[in-house]
Write a structure and sequence with these properties.
alpha/beta, about 525 residues, 12 helices, 3-stranded antiparallel beta sheet, 8-stranded parallel β-barrel
Length: about 525
């Protein structure tokens, strides 16, 4: 039986939000740890002003945005928000305290559009893991953090199920890091509702060893459209049936079909009524701010916000429900952990239960010290044009070299559970390994370490890389690593995930067409 306390009390940090009861997960349910009452999420997806810039917007680092929106959140009666994009670099004290004072919990996505597992060319490296650790460091001190999502709809079709192996590795490693920091914040996953892979996807994130298992699961569900829909005709009944008898909590990561507007949210009566409360612990309506897609409860413009017609309907529907749960003291979990799905194209699932290793800066830095040819770049480019050129260079280099030389050390095959010993290094480190392999294959002749000016020769400080795989990172806070080379100290029919040399998730979008 697993009990997880969502609290930062053990840290003794300077920041303390106003008293808000920690939330506990026990078996397949959430509970208020002080009252023992079952906790149901009455939430809203919250990402204001997301379309106003191409850069990541962190609403929890902007006191003016929180001050503008908090009265609306309190008025509509929500007790939690889901925030998709935040950064670990700003100061979140004001917003998090305001939310805590209002009795509102926060469920955060660890990823952003630029810091994520790319479903088309998935890789999980030291930079991404470092970023996730930084975000845990930034938000772990707040007592109203309800949990973290390790991914959102990363696998969303039959042809990219291999990406789930990398997300599950993130769950394993972030859970370990949270434990190392003496926190008890659960890490989960939010899945789309694709009938072709629904069961495989959900069982995959619940199966395996406990330390690899998602601590809660969410489904983004948009099947209930209009007042004519019912619990059965909408497909909600099937979703509940699939989740019945599990050992971890289930929630709706998003809900609220907008095929008919204004929305009346008739599904709320089932979400918080006898149809679902035995299995689901509430969820998050999509979404707070009105965008071009037409899901908003509130329209925002600068410092002003205006309610949409959906707002009143949502508030009314939410106020009408009073979910009846069980007391923690009388609840004995009986749910069962699921068996991993079979792997192979015939089963519409190609993600092995063998996961990528934990990315290690020490291993990658050791490898870099053994190279005689490396990338001239020591940092990833940041501008769009530079990133595009970088992606094109990587695509050409990987495509050319790895067609002639075995690039297994920087490659992955999630369908077979095979991951090169340097596949968790960042893009600059991996491409440096590739150009060095070519350089050595060409017997280091003049001009073979150039690649149109991309690479340069280096003086290795290690004679070989034989000791690198055993190098482990010391514990501590998350950090991004550098790509520089310093002289200082199943089923064989599986498809869709063949062994490939991998590079950066950001560059993959640009360079994929070059393969």
């Amino acid at each position: 039986m697993r009990v997880s306390i969502v609290s930062a009390a053990l840290l003794g940090l300077a920041f303390r939000a106003a008293a808000i009861d920690p939330i506990v997960t026990k078996g397949s349910k959430f509970f208020n740890s002080k009252t023992g009452e079952q906790f149901f999420i009455k939430g809203v997806a919250y990402q204001p002003d997301i379309e106003s810039t191409s850069q990541v917007r962190d609403p929890l680092a902007d006191k003016s945005i929180c001050t503008r929106d908090l009265p609306f959140l309190k008025d509509m009666g929500v007790n939690a928000i889901r925030v998709y994009q935040t950064e670990p670099f700003g100061n979140h004290d004001d917003c998090m305290k305001m939310l805590s004072d209002a009795g509102i919990y926060v469920l955060l996505d660890l990823s952003t559009p630029t810091e994520t597992i790319n479903r088309e060319t998935p890789t999980y490296d030291v930079d991404l893991y470092g970023y996730y650790k930084q975000k845990i460091d930034a938000f772990g001190k707040y007592d109203n953090i309800l949990g973290f999502f390790a991914g959102n709809e990363v696998t969303n079709a039959v042809n990219n199920t291999d990406a789930s192996a990398f997300v599950k590795a993130v769950i394993r490693d972030t859970r370990s890091y949270i434990k190392e920091k003496k926190l008890s914040i659960p890490v989960g996953y939010a899945a789309n509702d694709d009938a072709d892979i629904r069961w495989q996807l959900q069982t995959y994130f619940d199966c395996g060893s406990t330390d690899e298992q998602a601590e809660f699961l969410a489904i983004n569900l948009y099947e209930w459209c209009g007042d004519d829909a019912t619990f059965k005709t909408s497909g909600y009944a099937d979703v509940v049936k699939n989740a019945t008898g599990w050992d971890i909590p289930y929630i709706l990561g998003e809900y609220g079909c907008n095929a008919i507007r204004p929305r009346t949210f008739s599904e709320i009566a089932s979400i918080y009524g006898s149809d679902m409360t035995d299995v689901f612990s509430g969820g998050f309506v999509y979404e707070y701010v009105e965008e071009a897609n037409g899901y908003g409860l509130v329209e925002v413009s600068g410092s002003k916000a205006t309610k949409t017609e959906d707002y009143a309907n949502f508030k009314k529907a939410l106020a009408a429900v009073k979910p009846a749960g069980v007391k923690m003291s009388s609840y004995s979990p009986s749910g069962k952990q699921q068996t991993c799905p079979k792997v192979g194209s015939a089963y519409r699932w190609v993600a092995s239960s063998s996961l990528p290793p934990t990315p290690s800066n020490a291993t990658c830095e050791c490898m870099m010290k053994s190279l005689s040819c490396t990338s001239k770049l020591t940092q990833m480019p940041t501008s769009g044009s530079d990133l595009k050129a970088f992606g094109q260079s990587l695509g050409q280099i990987f495509g050319t070299v790895c067609a002639s030389i075995d690039c297994g050390d920087v490659s992955t095959d999630a369908s077979k559970g095979e991951y090169g010993k340097y596949s968790g290094c960042n893009a600059l480190q991996r491409v440096s390994w590739v150009v060095n392999a070519w350089y050595e294959n060409e017997r280091m002749v003049d001009g073979s370490c150039d690649f149109d000016g991309f690479a340069t020769t280096a003086k290795p400080s290690l004679s070989d890389d034989s000791s690198c795989s055993s190098q482990k990172d010391s514990s501590g806070s998350g950090s991004h690593s550098s790509g520089s080379n310093s002289d200082d100290d199943k089923d064989d029919s599986s498809s869709g995930a063949s062994r490939t040399a991998v590079f950066s998730a950001a560059a993959a979008i640009v360079a994929a067409a070059l393969f």
